Amino acid sequence: MKILVFEYITGGGFNKQELPDSLAGEGRLMLHALLDNLTKLDSLEVTVMLDWRLDDSADIPGINTALIRPEHDAIEEFSKLAKQCDLVWPIAPEFDGILQNLCQTVESLGKRLLTSSAAAIAVAGNKFKTYRLLNRNQIATVPTQMLDDSYSQPLDRLGTGGEWIIKPVDGVGCADSYVVTNRQDVEQMTAHKKQYIIQPHLQGKKTSLSCLFKQGRAWLICANLQRFEFINRQYHLAEIAVNHHPDSGEYQQLIDKIGLALPELWGYAGIDLIETAEETWVLEINPRLTSSFAGIYDALGINIVEAVLQLVHGDPILNPVCNRSITVQTKQEANAS
């Protein structure tokens, strides 16, 4: 079986401009973990797209590398390579419809997509659509409103403690997300031409769930603790303790509800939570590999690639061979993602 891996940031998506340090760092982390999982399996011929500036990483045993240079159109190259493969695994940010469009391309070619469908990403990749979906299905989620020209509700009605957080509706991680206390802060932070949402700034334990989904069913792999630094009104993800929390059943029950609410979710996805004394709130659904994925093999001995391939024809086999917490460092020198 031939499989194409395209991690957008490191794979040439920014081949005509400067590589963003924070996203490139996270991209390398996930790409290397994915390739490590792939090389542990037999009967796969792997091709990976790689930005021309990262050609020092091109010589990976057992991996075919397609270098993407400045003169290339990365999306055209992706389509050409996908046509030659049986399986395609894109990893990309949700902003500007990037991940959704890549998945639509794979679907239009009739190739097996090893992520959620474009339809699922159209919902999960939009924080306001995600909020409405969860709210409709009685799943506790952080109250969310669009922040646009028609917005007139006083800020003091939106949250507790006088603090709110604004973020792009399709943003990745904490990029361009800010904690604000008044309308002047909002106007200053939203000068960019983007669509923003606004939410009350809740304080609590920041947990992420690593999961598999298929046709309304959900499997919990592990629960992880996210540790952030707070600098200049922004959260910066510093590290993740993968497999930090044992599950008493609460997390599995939650993702069961999410799977039924969004049955188009397929394969690996990450669920971000804020846990307060009163409630466990779903913050967002990441319909793709997340940074936590990079620690799963060392924490549990589970090959997620193998489990995702099992999903194609049946149920995944998730048998841990060890059970420990692994810390994944995500902080970048210039800017954390």
UniProtKB/TrEMBL annotation:
Which keywords accompany this UniProt record? Answer: ATP-binding, Ligase, Manganese, Nucleotide-binding
The record ties this protein, via PANTHER family, to: BETA-CITRYLGLUTAMATE SYNTHASE B-RELATED, RIBOSOMAL PROTEIN S6 MODIFICATION PROTEIN
Name the Gene Ontology biological process terms.
Answer: SOS response
Against PROSITE patterns, the record matches this protein to: ATP_GRASP
Read off the Gene3D superfamilies from this record. 2.30.36.100, 3.40.50.11770, ATP-grasp fold, B domain
Name a GO CC annotation attached to this entry: cytoplasm
For this entry, the protein name equals Putative ATP-grasp superfamily ATP-dependent carboligase
Q: Where is the ATP-grasp domain?
A: 131-313
